[in-house]
What does this fold into?
Amino acid sequence: MWLSTVAIVVLVIVAIIVALILTILLAPITYSIEIDGRTPYRGELRIKWLWRVFSLHLAYIQNKPFFKELYVLGVLKIGPVKDYEQWLENRVDEEYQKVMDDDGDMAEAFTKAMQGGGQGPTTSSSGTSFDDLKSSQGSSATFGDDESPGAGSSPNQEERKERIERPDAESKDMDAQARADRYDSIQQDPTAHIQDDDEVVSRVTFNSDGSIKEKVFTKVNDIKTTVKQRFGKPDPNDPVASFKSEIPTFWFMKHLRNTELWRQIFLVSKRCYNHSKPRDMAIEGRFGIGDPYRMGLIASMLYSIWPEQAESIEIDYVNWVAEGSGYIKGRMILAVLAWYGTRFLVSKPMRSLLGESARVFWVKRKEAKQLEKLKAAQGQTA
It folds into this structure.
């Protein structure tokens, strides 16, 4: 008897799970767009799925604030009510903080009065006020560009690693041919133009006309050695530096050049569009772009592609005018999109791409572990 009861309970649970999955997959996602080009202008967007499991509503009406409302799993995330609740919460926090600050000031004043501190001149935390510092240095004390009050001049100022260069107004930058020649020489030998302890440009400022106003050079020690190490070949005796991956850098290029993969991408895009394209469309009003020739072309396309809607549209061939309204409504079902996506994933080019991607991931993971072991062994022998 109890086995039959357990079986019934299990079947009920399975039936509920299946019903939920079918509801999620078969419940349509509806969308609608409405636009009114007459005063007052109005635009509205609605997206809804399973009532308020997901619901988005955006609306704009002329001379009124932008309206937005978002529900996720039946909970209001964005909306006028949510904004009011946040404003009320912030207001309560501000008033509470204000009361606490006033209480703190009153407690501090009471403590000073009990200690007999009174209201004396303010001093700094070190016991020296700004007036004392000013009087000690004199009223005529001046500071240089690189000095600050109380700091004095730096003893190593002549050894600073920055140099500022301001080009003359008459000087001109190198021409295009000189820049090209310099670029070619750098490509051939990146260290040819670098001296030992060379300088690098750390900051550049420009004038309003785009010319260079100022260059700041910073001296970098051993920059030539650093560049050689960057562009030089790894040491063959160093197992870590000479470690090379089995996977080429652009292993995926053969898949990108596969025309069959692109055909499958376009095919699944076409299927998804045909399923989710608008089912109900309407437009009415008076329209014109002020160009009789172009408007004639548009009218010919309208009458040939959408003849049933052309009766509600008045075309103005001479004047620029846009007065009317329209709406677009449609829906999409997740089960259909999932079916199209599954067919795309099991296609031959996608199977090949996914299989090789898994292989690359597995090999890269093994190589990372091997490299960690080499580094650990190198650290022990060092």
Remarks:
- The mean pLDDT is 78.
- The radius of gyration is 37 Å.
